[in-house]
Amino acid sequence: MTRHELTRFPLIKALLKNRWPQLAVYAALLAGFIFAIFAGFVGSPVGNHNFSIVFVWIAWWAMLILAAVPFFGRGWCAVCPIPLPGEWLQRGAILELAPTGKGVSLGRRWPNPLRNIWMQNISFTLVALFSSVILTMPLITAVVLSAMFFLAIGSSMVFERRAFCRYLCPVGGFIGLYSQIAPLELRVKTTRACASCKEKPCYHGSEAGYGCPWQVFPGGLQKNSYCGLCMECLRTCPVDNIAVNLRPFSSDLATPTKRLDEAFKAFIMVGAALIYAGVLLGPWGALKDAAYRIGSGVWFAYVGVFLSVLFVLMPSLYALAVKAGMLLAKTSSAVRPAFAAMSAALVPLGLMFWVAFSLGFVFTNATYILAALSDPLGWGWNLFGTANIPWQPLFTGLLAPLQTLVLIAGMLWSAETAQKVASAAGVRPLPVIIYCLLATLVMLGLLL
Amino acid sequence: MKREILARILLLALCLVVVLIPLALRDRSLTLRARMPEDDGWSPQVIQAAAGQPLRLRLTSEDVTHGFAVGQMEMASVDVLPGVVSEVTLLFDEPGIYTFFCTRWCGLNHWRMRGTIEVSGGDAPALADAPLYVALGLDIDAPHPVPGVPSQIPSAARGGQLAEIVSLAEFSTPEYYRAHSPYQVYQDLVSTNLNAAERWDVVSYLWRSQTTAEGLAEGARLYAQNCAACHGETGGGDGVFADQLAASGQSSSQTMHGSMSARTPADFTDAQNMLGASPALLQGKLMRGGMGTGMPMWGVIFTEEQSWNIIAFLYSFQFQYQGVTR
Q1: Is B75 on the interface with A (CB under 8 A)?
Q2: How far is CA B196 from CA A351, B149, B182, B193, B278, in A?
Q3: What percent of chain A is modeled with pLDDT above 70?
Q4: Of residues B76, B78, B116, B118, the one with CA closest to residue B99
Q5: Can you say how many angstroms the Cα of residue B145 is from the centroid of all Cα atoms in its chain?
Q6: A108-135 burial, b if ≥16 CB within 10 A, otherwise e?
Q7: B275 lies in which domain range?
């Protein structure tokens, strides 16, 4: 596959190696993050007039799903401000390299049984279950953001490197999943150079930089999922063997996962998109009511349905489709590895589901961004003269055709992915393609 | 090391700035926050002010659209929108306790959404006269049905024609009108030799002559704004909240402080009750409230004139006023 190394351009390489540009973005985003928490606690409790809701769940989410993840993979993780304070305490420095031991972390190793993304699957599911209030109530958003902030600091104090990002962050899990699609990657130029490197400063650190915060050895990188694009290895590699490349979309899916935690992440994301579309955009008041009335009987019923769809119904039907594909291929091996491998087909499908869903509420609510820009706390300010811009859905005529196109593209993309991985998995792709088609039709029905 | 210190200072300064600047710029004027009555209504519920000095209020809603107005004060209602800050400046000439209230049907307990402005200083106002129903010694909670009702809707226009041939001077004073029910006047008109239907028409005319087109219009506006939610736009006691009140019963009534008996709103189209009620009696019910029923106390909200206009409008559910333009 064709790859174009971006780091061969001196300017790009210099920008990526220098810590100041990254720190400048970090600082701006950390200030924005602190302000979002502040706004959630002291600003107007009316969500569409509060920075914490409008800029986190509309502006940031739109940026993340519609641009950052599809085109830059973990590009957001490279500048995410949440781990910054914890990392500062852990390292004992924010910009320059501090002498070893100057930080205040216990530096424990993350427990082996938890070295997977199940915790991220759970944290995302928890956020999704409470999303009806998190997405609408600034105070709850502030509590959730604060919890993530202090959890990140706490995990940095106890564990080595970025344990929060790697194992706990509810957002990081799906960014990792969909980063496999992005046309951007960080890889080594040649594995031989890594094999002959004795010090492995990219992993252990050196005077030039820190060891990989994501606990990844770049020489073994085969997919984007766990590379946070922090560029430490670019700084530490003594033989200039690290490259940031442009590549074709979804290159990583050619080598599908064997892990169930990663496979289930794909189901959680597809299922959550379907349920979100029904609850947040659908016309069913009773369903919306059930999602909002946290702690009530109907909410527990909603939780039951939510969890059943994500963890039982969708995976079970998918397993049946994979099994049917194995029967068609006359393969008699175990279903589990094939099930995990074929989950690759759900990666482009899920991302396109989220893009289509996000287009719906972003176009609908985008005008709140301008209003909140002028009055971010709902205190009656009008900083840029846009506070009184009336709410108005944008591109209403364009939305449905665009969502349809996105979903069709996702369907075709998932079919192509299924075909690519099917032979290695020992299955015929048709049943999985039918599964993806049916899921797409359901999503179309919910959105249109 | 200098670069590290600089980076730390910049980072911390930026994080502090985004919090401290908004706090420094925050408008310190009193902000009156509106929430559904079930979530405690206005906050604060009591505001202090001084007579003769402007009181600047910033109004904002934290849930649905509400409205703000001060009872017995000439002011247009101010919309209180979710997340939007509106400003209003009030000036009180006299000390006293003023009631502010929600003017939008925000929910089942909308009418409970009230607060007070305690205005101090200045000359004490003169004591108000006792309400008319008190002066007349009326028991406004006693049933007041009439033994018979008109066979057709009494017409003020027809009554006006009859008024030219009979003497109605003793029935035409405001004092007489306010102190008597339509049925009492109907009975008092026996001496005129008019038949029953004609007497009811004359009563209708007398009632209409005690108000004006403007008064009726204002009564209709106040009724639509404040009464129709429970009593219905057509007076049938079937407003949008009536069913909810009935369905929620005691529980809805206990969401605020204490309990009360849940009663269906009065039906102003019920001739048997309406024709037995004098304007003074209706005004008493209106101004005092239902004393334990769902009927709120409007005495702190409506002026005397407004209350008479509403009462005049209520009788339009019994009498045909078309054809009378004055």
Answers
A1: no
A2: 81, 10, 13, 9, 19
A3: 99
A4: B116
A5: 25
A6: eebeeeeeebbbbbebbbebbbbbbbbb
A7: 128-326
What count of other Cβ atoms lies within 10 Å of the Cβ of residue A238? 12
Backbone dihedral angles phi then psi of residue A214, each to the nearest 5 degrees: -95, 5
Write the DSSP symbol of residue B90.
E
Q: Which residues of B touch A378 (CB under 8 A)?
A: 60, 83-85
Does one domain contain both B54 and B111?
Answer: yes
CB atoms inside a 10 Å sphere around CB B141: 14
Whether the pLDDT of residue B260 is over 60: the answer is no
| pLDDT level of residue B250 (50, 70, 90 thresholds) | very low
Total domains present in chain B: 2
State residue A364's pLDDT score: 92
Number of neighbours of residue B9 by Cβ within 10 angstroms: 10
**What's B27's DSSP letter?**
-
d(CA A33, CA B309): 57
Does residue A429 have a cis bond before it (omega within 30 degrees)? no
pLDDT per residue over B120-158, tens digit each? 987 777 777 888 999 999 999 888 899 989 999 999 999
Residue A401, token pair as written in the block: 């055709």
pLDDT confidence of residue B263: 67
Write out chain B residues lying below 8 Å of A48, CB-based.
82-83
Name the residue among B73, B170, B188, B157 with its Cα closest to residue B119: B73
pLDDT at B13: 95
Nearest alpha-carbon partner for A421 in A407, A439, A435, A433: A433
- Which residues of chain A make contact with B84, given a CB cutoff of 8 A? 49, 378, 380
Residue B257 has pLDDT above 50, yes or no: no
Q: B87 - beta bridge partners?
A: B58
A34: nearest CB among B1, B19, B58: B19
CB B89 within 8 A of CB B56: yes
Q: Do B11 and A23 touch (CB under 8 A)?
A: yes
Residues forming a β-bridge with B49: B119
Can you name the residues that pair with B99 across neighbouring β-strands? Answer: B116
pTM of the model: 0.85
Interface test with B, best of A18, A30, A44 (most B CBs within 10 A): A44
Q: Tokens at residue B325, please?
A: 């333009």
Looking at the structure, tell me whether residues B281 and B190 fall in a common domain.
yes
Nearest residue, CB atoms, A378 vs list B10, B11, B83 = B83
Closest residue on chain B to A29 (Cα): B15
In angstroms, how far is CA A382 from the centroid of its own chain? 34
As a whole number, mean pLDDT of residues A392-403 equals 93
- Residue B96 within any structural domain of the chain: yes
CB B30 within 8 A of CB B54: no
B240 and B287 co-located in one domain: yes
Mean pLDDT of A384-403: 93
- Within this chain, do residues B62 and B154 fall inside the same structural domain, yes or no? no
Cα dihedral: A430, A436, A437, A443 (round 10): 170
Contact B177, B210 (CB under 8 A): yes
- Do the beta carbons of residue A16 and residue A231 sit within 8 Å? yes
Q: Which residue, B120, B149, B180, sits at the end of a domain? A: B120
Same domain, B198 and B323: yes
Q: How many of the other CB atoms lie within 10 Å of CB of B232?
A: 20
